[in-house]
Design goal:
The chain is of the alpha/beta class. It has three domains: about 50-255 and about 465-475, Aldehyde Dehydrogenase, Chain A, domain 1; about 260-450, Aldehyde Dehydrogenase, Chain A, domain 2; about 485-524, no CATH class. Helix content is about 40%, strand content about 20%. It has 15 helices and 22 strands. It has helices spanning about 45-80, 85-95, 100-125, 160-170, 185-200, 215-220, 235-245, 270-280, 300-315, 335-345, 380, 400-405, 420-430, 465-470, 495-510; strands at about 25, 35-40, 125-130, 135-145, 150, 175-180, 210, 230, 250-255, 260-265, 290-300, 350-355, 360, 365, 370, 390-395, 410, 415, 435-440, 455, 460, 475-480. The strands form six sheets. Strands 12-15-16-11-10-18-19 form a seven-stranded mixed β-sheet, sandwiched between helices. A six-stranded mixed β-sheet has the order 7-6-5-8-9-21, with helices on both faces. Strand 6 (about 175-180), helix 5 (about 185-200) and strand 7 form a beta-alpha-beta unit. Helix 2 packs across helix 3, helix 3 (about 100-125) runs parallel beside helix 4 (about 160-170) and helix 8 (about 270-280) crosses helix 9 (about 300-315). The longest helix is centred in the first third of the chain and has 39 residues, at about 45-80. The protein is globular. The structure holds nicotinamide-adenine-dinucleotide. Nicotinamide-adenine-dinucleotide (NAD) binds next to helix 6 and helix 7.
Length: about 525
């Protein structure tokens, strides 16, 4: 199906029908040129979207696993064939290079494929062993859709990030109402329209709907009585969303910011580590939740690593031309945060490489900056910077690197570079983060079977993989009695002898743990 998606097309059935009172315009951050205008949806729009979604969820749920899988795979194929068109729109609306936008879409496609193909296996009914006390029962567990899921998204990865919730929620049988960031509504609209046309196959059922607007629209969605909110954004906003959702006991999944650390061990491949660190920190202008923001380098290789990283970073060129390595800051206000972190770091003895920190900002662009000798309690180390800057610190060894990496309120991703498989695995387990990449950066986001999410200020809950599917479903336990029980324990007709026999059996099965062969307790 060759359907060109533009923001100016006529309304799809997926759009809320209430006339919007106000509009807002999304802008190209590199040029300031308007891209398209969108309604500011309000509480009535959110409520109407939910009531339409309830019906759509029943219809979508009724299609069954096979049909839903087929429609999702059609959507995947459409996204693949229209990748260039979507990438161009992402380039215009976020400023990121079109090639980076293409990579982002590729990752999303891989997730649509995985969710579509694995939903039934992960969520469908399966038998579990009933145990000796319920031997007469056949037991099954299945994961049923929640109903309607509200997805509130950020702007930095306007396809990959919300799709991590949207796709898994839809594959689990839910209807979704998507509120993209006010900075990227055109990309959000493109996704919703394409789903309606391809996966909806012309049916007037809004399985995926769009609400546009800023904080107030997000708040309206959070208050609308959806069955779950999947929020991605800052921890400060997550707190507000949770407070609103608490009114209806609406569960929330919070994918928030990060301050990811990369540790370079003394035996690491320094070329690979410097290359990955430069990309992990600077790509997408550093506007990556799992971007590298802190580097800890083992003392023996500190100088060599820093020289290699500086060499790579000094060759990077921000801009909007075809050769740009990364684009402008998508959100103008972020430049203030970056400037504050740089100024504070320098004032506290930090050294900037390759140029002066004072010259880094050339709005809307920020040149890459490596900061060394920055105290660990400086804002550049403790707060999410979300810009093309990175702190590099010398540590005695891997262990000290882990200790400093873990001394953060955030805990999203992390990376460790070492040639020792054993040390790498130990470090990965000890790093307090939801995901760790060994000898690479961000690789975990490319593996659809792996769960994605953080700890602490980075949020809770998981998208992607089997955990991501279950996040949008509720477990349903079913027992079915297939024979009369040998001893009926759940009856007023139970006798003393019945209970005695059961106690004897349980003691035989469970009473010996921790006993030596001579019958003495190990503790005695
Ligand atoms: P943000 O918190 O400002 O906004 C996120 C979304 O919440 C937007 O759609 C916004 O309109 C909406 N919103 C704002 N106020 C609201 C309110 N009171 N009630 C309901 N909704 C509200 O974040 P952002 O600037 O769009 O995104 C950047 C942040 O997102 C960074 O911290 C980044 O690390 C994080 N992020 C996390 C992940 C992840 O997977 N963990 C992925 C991408 C981005």
């Amino acid at each position: 199906m060759a359907v060109a998606m533009t923001a100016s097309q006529a309304q799809e059935p997926a759009q809320p029908q209430v006339p919007a009172r106000k509009t807002f315009t999304s802008l190209n951050p590199a040029t300031g040129q308007p891209i398209a205008s969108f309604p500011v949806h309000q509480r009535e729009d959110a409520d109407m979207a939910v009531s339409r979604a309830r019906e759509a969820a029943r219809w979508w749920g009724g299609l069954g696993w096979r049909e839903r899988r087929s429609r999702l795979l059609d959507w995947k194929s459409f996204l693949t064939r229209h990748m260039d068109e979507l990438a161009q729109l992402m380039h215009e609306e976020t400023g990121k290079p079109a090639d980076d936008a293409t990579l982002e879409i590729i990752l999303a496609i891989v997730h649509v494929d995985w969710a579509a193909r694995h939903a039934r296996r992960v969520l469908g009914p399966h038998r579990v062993f009933s145990g000796i006390t319920a031997i007469n029962q056949a037991s099954t567990v299945e994961y049923q859709p929640l109903g309607v899921v509200g997805v509130i998204g950020p702007w930095n990865y306007p396809v990959f990030t919300p799709m991590g919730s949207i796709v898994y929620a839809i594959a689990a049988g839910n209807a979704v109402i998507f509120k993209p960031s006010e900075l990227t509504p055109a990309v959000g609209e493109w996704l919703v329209r394409s789903f309606g046309r391809v996966a909806g196959r012309g049916a007037p059922q809004p399985v995926l709907q769009l609400l546009t607007g800023a904080a107030a629209t997000g708040a309206a969605l959070a208050a609308s009585g959806v069955d779950k909110i999947a929020f991605t954004g800052s921890a400060a906003t997550a707190r507000k969303v949770m407070a609103i959702a608490a009114e209806n006991l609406t569960p929330v999944i919070a994918e928030c910011g990060g301050k990811d650390a990369l540790i370079v061990d003394a035996d690491a491949d320094l070329n690979a580590a410097a290359d990955a660190a430069a990309w992990g920190a600077m790509s997408n202008a550093g506007q990556t939740c799992v971007g590298i923001e802190r580097i800890y380098v083992a003392d023996p290789v500190y100088e060599t690593f820093l020289a290699k990283l500086t060499d790579r970073v000094s060759r990077l060129h921000p801009g909007s031309d075809e050769k740009a390595d990364y684009g402008p800051m998508t959100m103008p206000g972020q430049i203030d945060v970056i400037s504050r972190h740089l100024a504070d770091a320098v004032a506290r003895g930090g050294r900037a490489l390759p140029g002066r920190a004072e010259d880094a900002v050339d709005a809307p662009y920020v040149r890459p900056v490596i900061l060394t000798d920055v105290p660990e309690d400086a804002a550049a180390v403790t707060e999410e910077t979300f810009g093309p800057t990175i702190t590099v610190r010398r540590v005695a060894n891997l262990e000290e690197g882990i200790q400093l990496a873990n001394a953060s309120s955030y805990g999203l991703g992390s990376s460790v570079f070492t040639r020792s498989r054993r040390r790498a695995q130990t470090a990965a387990r000890e790093l307090r983060s939801g995901m760790t990449a060994i000898n690479s950066v961000i690789a975990f986001a490319m593996v659809p079977a792996l769960p994605f999410g953080g700890v602490g200020e980075s949020g809770f809950g998981r998208i992607h993989g089997a955990d991501g599917l279950r996040e949008f479903a509720r477990a349903k336990a079913i027992t079915s009695q297939w024979m009369k029980p040998p001893v009926n324990l759940t009856s007023f007709g139970r006798t003393d002898a019945d209970l005695k026999r059961t106690v004897g059996l349980i003691t035989l099965l469970h009473g010996r743990h921790g006993q030596t062969r001579r019958g003495r307790s190990r503790e005695s």
